[in-house]
Amino acid sequence: MLGAMAHLALAPVTRQVSGRAASAAVPSGPERGQPLAATVAELSVLDASGRQVPFGALFRERRVIVVFVRHFLCYICKEYVEDLAKIPKSFLQEANVTLIVIGQSSYHHIEPFCKLTGYSHEIYVDPEREIYKKLGMKRGEEIAPSGKSPHIKSNVLSGSIQSLWRAVTGPLFDFQGDPAQQGGTLILGPGNNIHFIHRDRNRLDHKPINSVLQLVGVQHVDFTSRSSVIHV
């Protein structure tokens, strides 16, 4: 078990060999300004009750920010979503935009993850990672400079210990997603047009939240305030 948990905490990182990345190339996917293929929009995500919802229905008639996260046990994802939880719903409503998080775990993990992070906006899961794949989200990690994230408070050691503890004490022992899968951020809708897309190259390559909010006219959010969420 400990070996598997170590793999979870320290997911694969792409090695550089003779100036080239040793891992396979990032799968291709749609780019900004292109319409999302109907075959992708027709794929389903699951809500917290396990109900299937067509991905395209999430943005067919509204503008949305969609954040795909790595997996729910990832401490970096947890702390990033904790900051997403701090975005006032009134700010989003003023800009006529909706915030959505999509993970890749079983839907059973949605409610505990929201309770842990204090996240109350929309959230779904893509357990088979079909949408991740179609959007060209990377699997594996590139060694690439990502800078210091304003959203991550834990260091590698303390964060990994938190992830391990949650894994072994949770009611369902699983990775809550593929540990090697990376996420990304999109701005979509209304309709199938992709207004913005960012594919994370590694676990720290997520977009600063305020830079994404600025693109849709949401006012600046102060993320320096302490969260009231209890960390376990």
Automatic annotation (TrEMBL):
InterPro entries: PXL2A/B/C, Thioredoxin-like_sf. It comes from the Eukaryota. The gene is PRXL2C. Transmembrane segments: none annotated. This is Thioredoxin-like protein AAED1. Pfam families: AhpC-TSA_2 (PF13911). Signal peptide: none annotated. PANTHER family: PEROXIREDOXIN-LIKE 2C, PTHR28630.
